[in-house]
Amino acid sequence: MTQNTPPVCDYTNSDYQTSFWEHADRAYEDSAEAVALRRLLPARGALLLELGAGAGRNTPRYAGYERIVLVDYSHTQLEQARARLGDSQRYIYVAADVYKLPFVDGLFDGATMIRTLHHMADAPLALAQARRVLASPGIFILEYASKLNLKAIARYLLGKQKWNPFTREPVEFVELNFDFHPAAIREWLAKLGFKVERQLTVSHLRIPVFKRLLPLKLLVALDALFSLTGDLWQLTPSVFVRASLPSKNENHTPPTEFFRCPTCGDTHLQNNQRGIQCNSCNHLYPLENGIYDFRV
């Protein structure tokens, strides 16, 4: 089963949480995202997969779920998340490649991918992995960076930008940083069997002059109001989507296994003192500092 996968954006040893969020005047963006998540998340759930969890910034917002699996490629980001959230049976920390998720099919009844897809060189493949591990019915909350935002449109029409915001293909504006067309996102989700239930536009006022002149509460209130038009148009730099998988006719039976070997695909794995070992290929996935490391 081992195969080459697209490159990953590795935040190992990064101070992303402090430098980007806590010390960079992004309280407005963070609060606006919190509003979007409150509107889109189900009231309750059993097992949530948080893809691109990073340092756990959004994890406390998933209060309705009984258990949460935090996945990130960076071991050090997950160490920060563990320091923030602590050790409990509610949280499972997993270092893994999103293109080779180490979970059995249909395991989760919910999944989120916030500020993560924009690092995916092969977004359809990443979305397909999220689809594989979701149960039917299941809820998927996706955030993506839209290339069809007003700033990009204006720059293109004024001749200050070469790439076309109206075309469907992704644009890589910095290495491993991609913007996507909303129609392409909806098309990829539909091909995977998802039904888009709701779209919210976020960060309408992500302009320095607005952030400097308007109080935070007013910025967030205006953004929350404007975001309600998200099903009509998606012209902001950030778009949130709630997509669902339909219920199957038969009663859903939860999988009896949890992890799947990302090396060979076998689902017969055993816990031991060093971590989790595959019975088929004998590959050992270590448990270090409370974090399972499934990176291959």
Describe the structure.
By secondary structure, this protein is of the alpha/beta class. The model has no long low-confidence stretch (mean pLDDT 94). The chain has eight helices and 13 strands. The N and C termini lie close together (12 Å). The protein has helices spanning 16-22, 27-40, 75-85, 123-133, 150-157, 182-191, 208-213, 216-226, and strands at 45-51, 65-72, 91-95, 108-113, 134-145, 171-174, 177-179, 195-202, 238-245, 269-272, 275-278, 284-288, 291-293. The longest helix is centred in the N-terminal third of the chain and has 14 residues, at 27-40. The chain is globular and about 60 Å long. It has a single domain (16-293), classed as Rossmann fold (3-Layer(aba) Sandwich). Strands 8-9-5-4-1-2-3-13-12-11-10 form an eleven-stranded mixed β-sheet, sandwiched between helices. It has a two-stranded antiparallel sheet with strand order 6-7. Helix 2 packs parallel to helix 8 (216-226).
Provide keyphrases for this structure.
8 helices, 26% helix, Rossmann fold, two-stranded antiparallel ribbon, single chain, 11-stranded mixed β-sheet, 13 strands, alpha/beta, 296 residues
